[in-house]
Amino acid sequence: MGAYSLMYRAIANKEVDVIADYSTDSGISKLNLIILEDNKEFFPDYSAAYAIDMDTLKSTPQSYPYLKSSAAR
Predict the structure, then answer these.
(1) What is the pLDDT of residues 5-58, one digit of tens each?
(2) Global pTM?
(3) How far is 30 from 18, CA to CA, in rounded Å?
């Protein structure tokens, strides 16, 4: 069993009061959780990044413009 499933089970069963999660995780809405503000900046900024294998990029070069434009947002 993965750590995330244990974490969600623990909060759903009220074994813990707070969990550290990604703000985009679907478990937040599924369990009706509230995202707390990190006003002390305890957690570092999490910026997602695309990563693609060069062989995949070479075999599908048409994907590059879409990845590049999505990453620029």
Answers:
(1) 899 999 999 999 999 888 888 889 999 999 988 899 888 877 767 788 889 889
(2) 0.53
(3) 15
Quick one: tokens of 34?
């509230």
Instruction: List the structure tokens of 45.
Output: 């900024």
Q: Phi and psi for 57 in degrees, rounded to 5?
A: -65, -40
Residue 15: what pLDDT? Answer: 95
Residues of 41-69 as b/e, b for ≥16 C-beta within 10 angstroms? eeeeeeeeeeeeeeeeeeeeeeeeeeeee
Question: What domain range includes position 7?
Answer: 3-37+46-71
The confidence score (pLDDT) of residue 45 equals 79
Domain count, the chain: 1
Cα dihedral sign, 51-54-56-58: positive
Token pair recorded at residue 2: 């993965």
